[in-house]
Amino acid sequence: MHDVVVVGSGPNGLAGAITLARAGRSVLVLEANDEIGGAARSLTNASGAVHDFGSAIHPLTVASPFMRTIDWGGHGLRWINPEAAVAHPLDNGDAAVVWRDLDRTVSELGADDGDAYRALYGRPSRRFDDLLALTTKPLPGLVREGLQRPVLAARLLRPLAAPASLTARRFHTDRAKAIIAGHAAHSVAPLNRPLTSGFALLLGSSAHAVGWPFPAGGAGEITRVMAEVLTSLGGEIRTGHRVASTDDLPESRAVLFALSPRQISRIVGQRFSRSYRLRLSRFRYGPGVCKVDFDTSEPIPWTNPAVASAATVHVGGTFAEVAAAERTVARGRHPRTPFVLLAQHTLFDPSRTPDGRHTVWTYCHVPNGSTIDMSGAIEAQIERFAPGFRDTIIDRRVWLPADLERADANLIGGDVAGGSNVDHRALLRPWPTLNPYRTSVPMFYMGSASTPPGGGVHGLGGHQAAHEVLRYLT
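-> structure tokens emitted (474 positions)
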């Protein structure tokens, strides 16, 4: 009998398992798929090109307090960290570029917005570890951190609560406002909602604190290394083992589910209390994504060459256009000109494709469970800022929300964020509670993107849930 069974081998499941194994507990990880990784894995297509399935760029991985305990280089992982964290093309050949160097970013924004940008991002970039400590814990931990350092907490947290639309008013130029829009749109929420500035502040600060890196060879390298760490500690991983009910769980003293609430409810069912089942059923998922992987014959021909300085590109035009696209999705419709998240890995990592070809990783937000193919709209948005892009396309693979959920059951309706980030849901997951990792069954725990601190390849949901499991086992 193992001390703990962990269900799910994504970053949160593996982080929880490593935390438990480091504490001397025997751990078994069960994975339904034939390979580990969840949304943090890479797929090789028929032409030999490597495309990341889910996550593609990883600032929160290198910044995460848990992930920093892993010796990535010792396990053969090489981080690639471009000098430009992210670029945002605009019409008429203009573009905003967020450089890792804060001073360079300020200088390029010029007299109109440079000082305002430094005022917004200077302190949180310098105190990024403190910012993470204040924003990645469940409610009691957040309050405790705030009480220990009230002045610093007030200075760092106050700007996070505002809608991104209000934060954008600090700036005068389309370039600076577009930067805010691109960062805030990672919330997958309307940009006039509270706390969307939190995404703009956290992601924008990470650009200057740690950059926006990615692993050479693909996102699957992250979970490969995590699996190696776990097995070196005596942990076991079993793939191809789908858990459909508690009958599929080997005997153990505790179970940590690195799954979404809907999956956990299906597995545990009537063993949960009626009130807890009701809460699980009311958990709100966010919009989905339509993902398109392109193989191209050459790099994207951006009108502004500076856009090729970044591996990550936010494609959506002005703040008003990005806000309109996200508002349309929130209303259950499909935008004609969507906000597109794009990664051009092979500009910096040519090992991902044979024969000098290139990959382009993209997705746009769509209503949860959408069945609409948005590849045409995605291509049109890229073509808008890179005329001739369509002529470079050799092949494409379209992932609708149902395809994503089939490949990773955590992606309910194509929701890659682990749940809605509208209003309080961005912080209080899966619902307002003092201990989000416990369930109504003492031996069962939840630690996934649906628990604090939410989506992202940081492992903290599983890591923090594992500490609750350890308290139970003591």
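The mean pLDDT is 96.
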